[in-house]
Amino acid sequence: xxxxxxxxxxxxxxxxxxxxxxxxxxxxxxxxxxxxxxxxxxxxxxxxxxxxxxxxxxxxxxxxxxxxxxx
Length: 71
Prior knowledge:
mainly alpha; globular
């Protein structure tokens, strides 16, 4: 199973968004989002699911499936 940080990267790349676009759209500081994506601070499941649904518009299970193809 992939880590939250990896799923964020995959979903963001699928949608072709920058980190600043994701952070602005979700309403968090850029540094916070970058720390989540780098795995410095773990992203909560609630934030991960909300980012997938609201920003990436990809259900979390779909991102988890896409992770297998990203390797």
